[in-house]
UniProtKB/TrEMBL annotation, chain A:
Gene Ontology molecular-function annotations: peptide transmembrane transporter activity
Family affiliation: Belongs to the bacterial solute-binding protein 5 family.
PANTHER family: GLUTATHIONE-BINDING PROTEIN GSIB, PERIPLASMIC BINDING COMPONENT OF ABC TRANSPORTER
Keywords on record: Periplasm, Signal, Transport
Localization per Swiss-Prot or TrEMBL: Cell membrane; Periplasm
Region forming the signal peptide: 1-22
GO cellular component term, pick one: ATP-binding cassette (ABC) transporter complex
Protein name (database record): Glutathione-binding protein GsiB
One GO process term, biological-process aspect: dipeptide transport
TrEMBL record, chain B:
Keyword Nucleotide-binding annotated: no
SUPFAM superfamilies: MetI-like (SSF161098)
Signal peptide (UniProt feature, chain positions): none
All copies of domain ABC transmembrane type-1, residue ranges: 100-289
Regions crossing the membrane: 39-61, 104-128, 149-173, 229-249, 270-289
Alphabetically ordered keywords of this record: Cell membrane, Membrane, Transmembrane, Transmembrane helix, Transport
Name this protein carries in UniProt: Glutathione transport system permease protein GsiD
Job of this protein: Part of the ABC transporter complex GsiABCD involved in glutathione import. Probably responsible for the translocation of the substrate across the membrane.
TrEMBL record, chain C:
Database matches in InterPro entries: BPD_transp_1_N (IPR045621), MetI-like (IPR000515), MetI-like_sf (IPR035906)
PANTHER family: DIPEPTIDE TRANSPORT SYSTEM PERMEASE PROTEIN DPPB-RELATED, GLUTATHIONE TRANSPORT SYSTEM PERMEASE PROTEIN GSIC
Pfam families on file: BPD_transp_1, BPD_transp_1_N
Protein name (record): Glutathione transport system permease protein GsiC
Coiled coil regions in record: none
Keyword Transport attributed: yes
CDD domains in alphabetical order: TM_PBP2
GO cellular component, one term: plasma membrane
Entry keyword set: Cell membrane, Membrane, Transmembrane, Transmembrane helix, Transport
Residue ranges annotated for the ABC transmembrane type-1 domain, each copy included: 95-292
Localization (cell): Cell membrane
GO biological process: transmembrane transport
TM regions (residue ranges): 9-30, 95-119, 131-155, 170-191, 231-253, 273-299
């Protein structure tokens, strides 16, 4: 009996070991990177109902108040604007057939597409555009979109298919902003108590149901104005926050399309013939802001030293699992008016000598802030490891998003505690203004904006104004080249990388894709 | 997140029985009973080993635990790296050994803090009764009805990130269950003859509480401390899962597990070893708790 | 008993009132500005101030509380800061998944826990006891999120038996309820074992044995009944734990329940939603324990409720 008890207890301990071991072993079962990835069960699609798993909830379906990428994606399934973006984020007319811009850049005239109907059967016309613009610009509504149209002085509808926008001053990014203003049925606006619960647009899909936090279902718009579209019956969006669960859904076929595809697991499914991974360069840039008003970051040499101390290739390899590219300006190459810069190649010795010149031969102690998602934590750790090699001891502080935002925005420029901030940025409408003004103009020090480097350069301030006021694209292009060159030299950031937008989908699905800003386009969705 | 009330309740059975036995002077009897609990003995050995590691760990690690090697990322276990390397090419074994101290310090200090606070509150509540008792107990009711995770998020958010705040967060939501247990032990021992006697001889409240009642509660405290340590380790790792735990740079087991979960399908060893170690450690603490519970229960006759 | 129940129910009201004040103070202590979070990274100050005014966040804190309570007493839980939807609507769609999840978890934990506990107690010190207790204790020795992820890997991806998550069918609740219930199961198993051992030493059980009743009858009729009472009481107390655990399980298994809503709302400092959820949790917890107390009386007629 005595003996038996001991034997059993030992056996049990062993058993516990094996159970756990088996669990872990199975989970990776035969899927080691070296073995080239396992094959998921082939699933054929008998219906035309698509499920898309994304990493966060839709916050709102009001297209004039949506700020996050997912809400915008959701709204775009049902709504369209005068302008829109193609796969490369280039501007194309959608509900407008064409447009003209006056020479002084103050008058935009849109000729509207005819025979377009809202889902409720009412006609899309110039009056509808006017009513939508009035809604956006009405101060009482306090909609997010309002600031984009701050320069609009007047909207007129001279005839049923013509709309004329008059600006108070030229605004170069106006067409980009126009692409963000999606058109809601005036009838629905008037009659519906809450347009977020019952969206009515002109898009390829009609609203079916939205259970906040669970799913958004849109169904085929049989009377869509583009011939032959859409090709699927319905699309269901599901928020699946946990990376591991999202990819599991793709493997089992519970989801037909997932975004984002976690970079770490791309290699795991790449050998699987049932799954297709798409990667495109994005407008999402990753960087660390350096507080240029604070010691020792107020010294240009220190900021440059930090830039030299970072091995950008290693950053892509370690933090992005090799899927990304180096950041070679203050914006991504996918953003309008991008101009490539060079320099800051990885050079530890140069970094050390710059630090020595600045009076910090032994480095210094620094604090790095960032959010607490695993992506950021990983990047921050890497950053700290790199700076440690040149003697800068970095204390990594990851904070919950809301707390971090509070820390950043509750300080005046002079007493700001922020030193370095690991962060990403993506201009939602792909325009250079969105990638520049809020980040580098001295009017936008927190809490007024996101210039957390407290970067102030009088030339840059002036150029940003000039660029916005410029009418011709080539003028804007030249000014933005100057801006980017100056910022690169002043190094208010440690420039790190540009994300790839990576999506995973079942092989039978075509036409669903992510755009460079991370929004998802489903208009061409098709089951093969 | 953790077995908040688990322990409370579990030991509310022995707690009144424990109270009936004089807690002191029975060490030998206790040891002989405890040694019969095979699983608990093995577990004690394991925990002892961990404690030794926690002390000498930094001196015996094969590699510097925080030094990355980007040329040796995510390698499986090998002769050079017994437990493989992680996503930065750091040696996982070294990090686990080095992290023992961190994990132990966090969980032990959190539990000791809640034991300390809970004991004081429980003694006051049980001994004085009346409005102060009602206040403390209603307070702990409120705490129980609060999802402890939210409490932890709130605490970390208010106090800011960092290990010491994780300790506080874990300690705070462990306190009410200690208070409840100690209160019920206090209640029954308050009625015992020698406390009555002491009171009738005019002893001061303070003296009665600390000289007569407190010793009665010690067995309950010991049992619950050992059981809650496991819960505290899990709670801390859950906080890491939510991004509110230990600093990611530090080799805390929970942080290793939660950061490594993105690699579950391509490099499972990154989560395998921290997971196994957490599992075994928590298991061991719980088994010790169970063993202590049995050994300290006077009704147990083998 | 009816009178007792009513008395207890009335007693809930002041408790909820205190909870409401505490919750209100607590969440306003947490740093973070909902107006800014809703407005987004590229918001202008003007925009943020506009939102703040819309939400009444520029009022003094006590006035915000008075307004909130005023609406609450009228049955109006307010509007979500983030989504602009009425909180009542949001809760309505999130309520059921969490309730199903917690009850299925509790259900199977109770059954398995009791079975393990009884087997262990009856076979005390023998191998079924060891296996039983090890299984039980293993249940609370794994971080929930990790157990969940491993279960998905094995049973959804590798074997394809169950969905990875969601709430589309009853099968989708199997893995999450297993994950969430594991901790409770182990606790109930240990608890019922101890309490079985206790009752089996009681005089009336011994008498039963001495009278030559079969072990089966002794265990079944006397010991089990008695420990059942205590186990049920314990199970009720686990609700706070289950609701807390549901946060993690709902995240891993993408269940659109109240736990996820809580995490999302905390992220945005969506005060109205957090308040409503916490009050609901507290009410639920108190109510469940009230029911358990009453049940206690049903299971054990020896207890009479003293009504003062």
């Amino acid at each position: 009996m005595r003996f038996k008890g001991r034997t059993w207890s030992l056996l049990m301990l062993l058993l516990a070991f094996t159970i756990v071991a088996a669990g872990c072993g199975n989970s990776g079962g035969g899927k080691g990177a070296s073995e080239g990835g396992g094959e998921s069960k082939p699933v054929t699609k008998n219906n035309k109902d698509i499920v898309i798993a994304i990493n966060a909830n839709f916050i709102t379906l009001d297209p004039h108040n949506a700020g996050d990428t997912h809400s915008i994606s959701g709204a775009r399934t049902m709504y369209e604007g005068l302008m829109g973006f193609n796969d490369k984020m280039e501007l194309v007319p959608v509900l407008a057939e064409d447009y003209t811009i006056s020479d002084d850049g103050l008058t935009y005239t849109f000729n509207l597409r005819k025979n377009v109907k809202f889902h409720d059967g009412t006609e899309f016309n110039a009056e509808a555009v006017k009513i939508n613009m009035e809604r956006i610009m009405n101060e009482e509504n306090n909609l997010r979109m309002r600031k984009s149209f701050a320069t609009v002085a007047d909207v007129q509808a001279p005839d049923e298919h013509t709309v004329v926008f008059t600006l108070s001053q030229p605004y170069n990014a106006f067409l980009n902003k126009a692409a963000m203003a999606l058109m809601i049925s005036p009838k629905a606006l008037k009659e519906s108590a809450d347009i977020t619960k019952d969206p009515v647009g002109t898009g390829a899909y009609k609203f079916k149901e939205w259970v906040q936090g669970d799913r958004l279902v849109v169904v085929k718009n049989e009377e869509y104005w583009q011939e032959g579209l859409p090709k699927v019956d319905s699309i269901t969006f599901k928020p699946v926050p946990e990376n591991g669960s999202r990819i599991a859904m793709l493997k089992t076929g519970e989801a037909d399309f997932i975004y984002p595809m976690p970079t770490e697991q791309v290699s795991d499914v790449e050998g699987d013939s049932n799954i297709v991974i798409d990667k495109i360069d994005s407008t999402i840039v990753r960087y660390v802001t350096l507080n240029t008003m604070k010691k020792p970051y107020d010294d240009l040499k220190v900021r440059q030293a930090i830039n030299y101390a970072i091995d950008k290739d290693a950053y892509i390899k370690v933090v992005k699992s090799g899927l990304g590219s180096k950041l070679t300006s203050s914006m991504s190459s996918m953003t309008q008016y991008y101009s490539e810069q060079s320099g800051y190649d990885y050079d530890v010795e140069k970094a050390k000598s710059l630090l020595a010149e600045a009076g910090y031969p032994d480095g210094f102690e620094a604090e790095l802030w960032g959010e607490n998602d695993s992506e950021s934590i990983k990047g921050m750790q890497f950053f700290a490891q790199q700076l440690a090699l040149v003697g800068i001891k970095v204390d990594v502080k990851s904070m919950e998003g809301a707390t971090l935002s509070d820390q950043i925005n509750s300080a005046t420029p002079e007493n700001a505690k922020i030193q370095m901030w690991y962060v990403s940025w993506s201009p939602s409408s792909g325009d250079a203004d969105g990638a520049t003004k809020g980040l580098f103009s001295s009017e936008f020090f927190p809490p007024a904006g996101a210039n957390t480097a407290y970067y102030k350069n009088d030339n840059v301030d002036q150029w940003i104004k000039d660029a916005n006021a410029s009418v011709k694209a080539e003028d804007a292009n030249e000014i933005y080249a100057n801006i980017q060159k100056q910022i690169w030299e002043d190094a208010p950031w440690a420039f790190l990388g540009v994300d790839q937008v990576i999506t995973g989908k079942r092989a039978y699905l075509e036409g669903v894709k992510a755009l460079p800003d991370g929004s998802i386009s489903v208009i061409d969705a098709e089951v093969k | 997140m953790s077995d908040n009330s688990t322990v409370t309740v579990h030991s509310s059975v022995p707690e009144d029985t424990l109270a009936k036995s004089p807690a002191t002077g029975k060490f030998r009897a206790f040891m002989s009973k405890f040694m019969k609990q095979k699983l608990a003995v093995i577990s004690s050995g394991f925990i002892l080993l961990l404690l030794v590691l926690a002390v000498i760990g930094p001196h015996i690690v094969p590699y510097p635990p925080n030094e990355p090697n980007y040329d040796a990322m995510m390698q499986g276990p090998s002769a050079a790296h017994w437990a493989g390397t992680d996503e930065y090419g750091r040696d996982i074994l070294s990090r686990l050994i080095d992290g023992t101290r961190l994990t132990m310090v966090v969980s032990l200090s959190a539990v000791f803090i809640s034991a300390f606070l809970g004991t004081i509150l429980g003694l006051i509540s049980g001994y004085y009764g009346g409005w102060i008792d009602r206040l403390i107990m209603r307070g702990s009711d409120v705490m129980f009805s609060f999802p402890d995770l939210l409490l932890a998020i709130g605490i970390v958010a208010i106090l800011g990130p960092g290990l010491s705040n994780v300790v506080i967060a874990v300690a705070v939501f462990g306190t009410p269950s200690f208070a409840r247990i100690i209160r019920s032990v206090t209640l029954s021992s308050k009625e015992s003859l020698y406390v009555e006697a002491a009171r009738s001889m005019g002893a001061k409240h303070n003296r009665i509480i600390w000289k007569h009642i407190f010793p009665e509660t010690i067995p309950s405290i010991i049992v619950n401390v050992s059981m809650r340590i496991g819960g505290a380790i899990l709670a801390a790792s859950s906080l890491s899962f939510l991004g509110l735990g230990a600093k990611a740079t530090e080799p805390d087991w929970g942080a290793m597990l939660s950061m490594g979960r993105d690699y579950l399908s391509i490099a499972p060893h990154i989560v395998y070893y921290p997971g196994l170690l957490i599992f075994l450690t928590v298991l061991a603490f719980n088994l010790i708790g169970d063993g202590l519970n049995d050994a300290l229960d006077p009704k147990t006759k083998n | 008993m009816g009178r007792y129940a009513i008395q207890r129910l009335l007693g809930v009201i002041p408790l909820l009132f205190v909870v409401s004040i505490l919750v209100f103070m607590f969440i306003h202590l947490i740093p973070g500005d909902p107006a800014r979070l809703v407005a987004g990274k590229d918001a202008t100050l003007e925009e943020i101030n506009g939102i703040r005014e819309q939400l009444g966040l520029n009022l003094p804190l006590w006035q915000q509380y008075v307004n909130y309570m005023g609406d609450l007493l009228k049955g109006d839980l307010g509007v979500s800061v983030t989504s602009g939807l009425p909180v009542t609507d949001m809760l309505a769609s999130r309520f059921l998944p969490t309730i199903i999840l917690t009850f299925t978890s509790l259900g199977w934990a109770l059954v398995i826990g009791l079975v393990i506990g009884i087997i262990s107690a009856v076979n005390r010190g023998k191998w079924p006891d060891y296996i039983g207790m090890l299984t039980a204790i293993s249940g609370i020795s794994l971080p929930g999120f990790w157990l969940g992820l491993v279960l998905i890997q094995i049973f959804s991806v590798e074997l394809g038996w169950f969905p990875t998550g969601g709430v589309d069918s009853w099968q989708s609740y199997i893995l999450p309820s297993f994950t969430l219930g594991a901790g409770i199961m182990s606790m109930l198993a240990r608890y019922s074992r101890t309490s079985m051992l206790e009752t089996m030493r009681e005089d009336y059980v011994r008498t039963g044995r001495a009278k030559g009743l079969r072990e089966f009858v002794v265990v079944g009729r006397h010991a089990l009944r008695n420990s059942l009472i205590q186990v049920v009481t314990v199970a009720g107390l686990q609700f706070g734990f289950l609701l807390g655990g549901s946060v993690m399980v709902e995240t891993v298994f993408s269940i659109p329940g109240m736990g996820r809503l809580l995490i999302d709302s905390i992220g945005f400092r969506d005060y109205t939603v957090i308040q409503a959820l916490l009050l609901l949790f507290a009410a639920e917890f108190i109510l469940i324990n009230l029911i358990v107390d009453l049940l206690y009386g049903v299971l054990n007629p020896k207890i009479r409720y003293a009504s003062k």
